[in-house]
Amino acid sequence: MVSMSNSQVPAAPNTRALTQDELKTLVAQAALEYVVRGQWVGVGTGSTVNKFIEALGSIRHEIPGAVSSSVASTQRLRALGIDVRDANEVERLAVYIDGADEIDGKGYMVKGGGAALTREKIVAAQSDRFVCIADASKRVPVLGTFPLPVEVIPMAGARIIRQFAAMGGRATIRMAGDKPLVTDNGQRLIDVFGLSITDPLAFEAEVSQWPGVVTVGVFAFQRANICLLGTDTGVQTLCFD
Ligand code: 5RP
Questions:
Q1: Closest Cα to atom 7, ligand 1: which residue?
Q2: Is the CB–ligand 1 distance for residue 29 below 6 Å?
Q3: How many angstroms separate the CA atoms of 99 and 51, rounded?
Q4: Is the CB of 42 under 6 A from ligand 1?
Q5: For the segment 76-106, what is each residue's pLDDT rounded down to a tens digit?
Q6: Given this model, what pLDDT does residue 183 score?
């Protein structure tokens, strides 16, 4: 069930619509309230999370440090003097803060636009609560408009692309310039277009079993518990518990 409450961080009175960048700043600031002081925090990846990391710098003395979901986030955290530990060194995280490419009415998400989906799912899995921070453009009725990222073992790529084609999806290998993108885990990414994911739990369960799939970018088992959604009227809080 979704419950909604008004923002505790209202947007400043404005005569113009806030830009996507300003909305990201708004939700990043609001997320600080969910960081449990004295405890390690899980940190995601992406442009919204980059703003959260900046905000986290202001309370760095109130937390022992962070577990990060990517090399890029780790570098940003350490540049601010925040201790970053390997996921194996911290048993449980009270909260994981991350963005999303899409989020539906049950807190199910598509993630991986920033290629960090595997580590994001790992850190989310060891966190008590997933707080998603996103601008309102990410809220969708059904997952699938954003191309679905899937991290794959390179030798399985062509077969997995054919398996998605049999489902009605068109998959392509994500490139970095003229070469296939290599993830932080040394693997490849494919992006699948044209899927409508009406049952995210079943979809994630099925695709995760395909040989060679490292991680599918549907986050249904590791769904958001809360979403802080940036809107023109302020931060809308969606609770999915
Ligand atoms: C990275 C992700 C990001 O959370 C997602 O792509 C959203 O990014 P942004 O905040 O830049 O819109 O899943 O792998």
A1: 100
A2: no
A3: 11
A4: no
A5: 999 999 999 999 999 999 999 999 999 999 9
A6: 98
